[in-house]
What we know:
Layout: E1 2-7, H1 11-22, E2 27-31, E3 47-51, H2 52-60, H3 64-70, E4 90-91, E5 94-95, E6 117-121, H4 122-135, E7 139-142, E8 148-152, E9 155-160, E10 163-172, H5 179-183, E11 188-191, E12 196-204, E13 213-217, E14 220-224, E15 229-234, H6 248-259, E16 265-275, E17 278-281, E18 285-286, E19 289-291, E20 297-298, H7 306-326, H8 335-359, H9 363-376, H10 379-390, E21 429-433, H11 441-445, E22 451-455, E23 466-469, E24 475-479, H12 485-496
Parallel strand pairs: 1-2, 1-10, 2-7, 10-19, 21-22
Antiparallel strand pairs: 3-6, 4-5, 8-9, 9-10, 11-17, 12-15, 12-16, 13-14, 14-15, 17-20, 18-19, 21-23, 23-24
The structure holds flavin-adenine dinucleotide.
Flavin-adenine dinucleotide binds next to helix 1, strand 2, strand 3 and helix 7.
InterPro entries: FAD-bd, FAD/NAD-bd_sf, RIFMO-like
EC number: 1.14.13.38
GO molecular function, one term: anhydrotetracycline monooxygenase activity
Amino acid sequence: MHDVVIVGAGPVGLFLACELGLAGCSVLVLEREPQPQSPFKAEPFGMRGLSGASVGAFYRRGLLPQLLSASGMSEDPGAPTASPLRGAGHFAGMMLDPARIDVDSLPYWLPSPAPRSLRTHLEAVETVLSERASGLGVDIRYGVAVTDVTQNERGAVAHAGGHTYPARWLVGCDGGRSTVRKLAGFPFEGTEPQFTGYSMQVTVAVPEKLDFGFHLTPQGMYLRLLPGHLAMMDFDGGAFDRSRQPTLDHLQSVLRRVSGTDVTLSEVQLATTFTDRAMQATTYRQGRVLLAGDAAHIHSPLGGQGLNLGIGDAMNLGWKLAATVRGHAPQGLLDTYTRERRPVGAAVLDWSRAQVAVMRPGPYAQAVQGVVRDLIGTRDGTTYVFERISGAWIRYDLGGEHPLVGRDAPDLHLEDGSRLGDLMGDGRGVVLDFSAEQSLRPAAKNRESRLRYVAGAARNDLGLGAVLVRPDGVVVWADGRTPDRPAFEAAVSEWFGDPES
Ligand SMILES: Cc1cc2nc3c(=O)[nH]c(=O)nc-3n(C[C@H](O)[C@H](O)[C@H](O)COP(=O)(O)OP(=O)(O)OC[C@H]3O[C@@H](n4cnc5c(N)ncnc54)[C@H](O)[C@@H]3O)c2cc1C
């Protein structure tokens, strides 16, 4: 009997396993594939863009050096980036100009060793996470396909290959076609696809016929970023049957139509398809079963958001589920998972739909495209799109008066050289008390196993006297120069439960 069984050892399941393992839970991960390696996880197919919020999650758990190194980045992870801008991203294939981003208007941004974006690949992400998870005692079993899930009020059971795997909680991190979601009866609602997307490793007879970069065309979009690799979107209503393997003839005919060229493919090494079907579970919890990542929401990969959304789910859920397992969660804590993450997922689905809407063939969408292109050409427009892509826009509705409450905490830097990000490696919440009186110490100290109290002056305190940060890096309380102690104590009880006896 484990505390938690996670179905699926993709990036989200592994991230969640690390969070639970860090908090001392016993965790079993069941993965259908017999081994973690796949050509679709390595470059170019597995290439993924991580947002600042996701990179920040790795940074806070001390995994940034491993992630940078596995992603082939040679830079010194200890050196804070003076600028948040790197590979700023795109909207429906319209590239952002990093020079136009108004860094000063980004809410509460401070320089940090964690870059605001990172180009990596699934293999790197999963390797870093599975090594950490194993080091924390998580049991990861490959070649175990879960075929049934049952639950009662005390726990849930995963069934696979004639074996049963009981646990107090079960989390489906088993991707877009989630078996757990279907078996546990989670309603899944949304919109049907407009296009079929293709990602392919090919030999092109005369590659110069296709320009590098993103290309919106009257028939869809094609994308050439790496030699030998192409992606394209064909507005066929998502008609291509994904259970079929696309042939060379099919790929060439779609590519010719979408690109408007007479390009010839001489060989297809590997190809995969996807759509922009956009669906979301109406709740992320049914009794003892929860969902995270693509199991809870699917949408097109446009603008690279799915993995970031899933890592956000795992970071949000991990400490809440751990506190519930260990018996010190305040009343209702676990239900805040759906309440906080579902609106973020819904917004990402709409962001994806908005991109599809401006890419559709025809004069109306092309007219909107022109308007969006003009807006993205402005400083405000670029900054707006960058905030959406980077995750900087996310603010949970947690009440509270301070504008920082509900946001991802800035990487506050203390006079002694320590940074907030460094202080979060053990998975506890953090109180930073910049006030001379250190009046918050007693309330924090009597929950020491869940909350780290740190007093001292900050190099740039952003006008704050003190700040209370959850284990997932979200600010739940903040105050000006003279902290309001009763308000702080109420926030500590609300998020961290009763004092330790
Ligand atoms: C072409 C493309 C480009 C993308 N680019 C980006 C990007 O740049 N940025 C971004 O943020 N996102 C991107 N995404 C989306 C991103 O890849 C996904 O959102 C992310 O991989 C989801 O992770 P996950 O762990 O939830 O699911 P998955 O990665 O799908 O992992 C699920 C795991 O569960 C296992 N599993 C399934 N069923 C069972 C079962 N019954 N029993 C046991 N195990 C099971 C699977 O084998 C798999 O290992 C892209 C997607 C595509 C298709």
